[in-house]
Automatic annotation (TrEMBL):
<keyword id="KW-1133">Transmembrane helix</keyword>
<dbReference type="GO" id="GO:0009073">
    <property type="term" value="P:aromatic amino acid family biosynthetic process"/>
</dbReference>
<feature type="binding site">
    <location>
        <begin position="100"/>
        <end position="101"/>
    </location>
    <ligand>
        <name>substrate</name>
    </ligand>
</feature>
<dbReference type="GO" id="GO:0009423">
    <property type="term" value="P:chorismate biosynthetic process"/>
</dbReference>
<feature type="binding site">
    <location>
        <position position="79"/>
    </location>
    <ligand>
        <name>substrate</name>
    </ligand>
</feature>
<feature type="binding site">
    <location>
        <position position="110"/>
    </location>
    <ligand>
        <name>substrate</name>
    </ligand>
</feature>
<keyword id="KW-0812">Transmembrane</keyword>
<dbReference type="Pfam" id="PF01220">
    <property type="entry name" value="DHquinase_II"/>
</dbReference>
<feature type="site" description="Transition state stabilizer">
    <location>
        <position position="17"/>
    </location>
</feature>
<dbReference type="GO" id="GO:0019631">
    <property type="term" value="P:quinate catabolic process"/>
</dbReference>
<feature type="transmembrane region" description="Helical">
    <location>
        <begin position="114"/>
        <end position="133"/>
    </location>
</feature>
<feature type="binding site">
    <location>
        <position position="86"/>
    </location>
    <ligand>
        <name>substrate</name>
    </ligand>
</feature>
<comment type="function">
    <text>Catalyzes a trans-dehydration via an enolate intermediate.</text>
</comment>
<keyword id="KW-0472">Membrane</keyword>
<dbReference type="GO" id="GO:0003855">
    <property type="term" value="F:3-dehydroquinate dehydratase activity"/>
</dbReference>
<keyword id="KW-0456">Lyase</keyword>
<dbReference type="GO" id="GO:0008652">
    <property type="term" value="P:amino acid biosynthetic process"/>
</dbReference>
Length: 151
């Protein structure tokens, strides 16, 4: 099982960015935690970040074409991007949406996600652990799917 962990805009600034909201862990440290957990689960990982919406669209399509799963922190694009939503829906890639912060305890404009309706589910509010829970969730869903296709 392969999982692509995709990070959207401004997540390259983690550690220095609004640390009262997002904590002090950098994206490099999150990548290390994710790789460690993936290793213990026997899953292969691709970990990427871009500030550009189109790159994220390309990577979602790539994951779909490979039969991989996606853990997606789309950052602010979560709340605005019809293109990301269409990429997930169009490629049929099993996706778990994750956020470091609890978006529901924040500003109203963060309460709506355009990608949640086409995702398997959403995990938010647990800091870097949101990624580990997301990885676990998409991995389990993919194992279940594989069992259903090849009983
Ligand atoms: C975020 C939440 C988004 O609302 C925000 O735009 C981000 C980070 C999070 O991980 O908590 O960039 O996705």
């Amino acid at each position: 099982i392969t999982v692509h962990v995709l990070n959207g805009p401004n997540l390259n600034l983690l550690g220095q960015r609004e640390s009262t909201v997002y904590g002090s862990t950098t994206l490099v440290e999150i990548e290390r935690l994710v790789r460690e957990k993936a290793g213990s689960m026997g899953a292969a990982i691709t970990f990427r970040q871009s500030n550009h919406e189109g790159h994220l669209v390309d990577w979602i399509q790539e994951a779909g074409a490979q039969g991989a799963g996606v853990v997606m922190n789309a950052g602010a694009y979560t709340h605005t991007s019809i293109a990301l939503r269409d990429a997930i829906a169009g490629s049929g890639v099993p996706t778990v949406e994750v956020h470091l912060s609890n978006v529901h305890s924040r500003e109203g404009f963060r309460h709506r996600s355009l990608i949640a309706p086409v995702s398997l589910g959403v995990i938010c509010g647990f800091g870097p652990m949101s990624y580990l829970l997301g990885l676990d969730a998409v991995h389990r869903a993919m194992v279940e799917r594989a069992k259903q296709t090849n009983p």
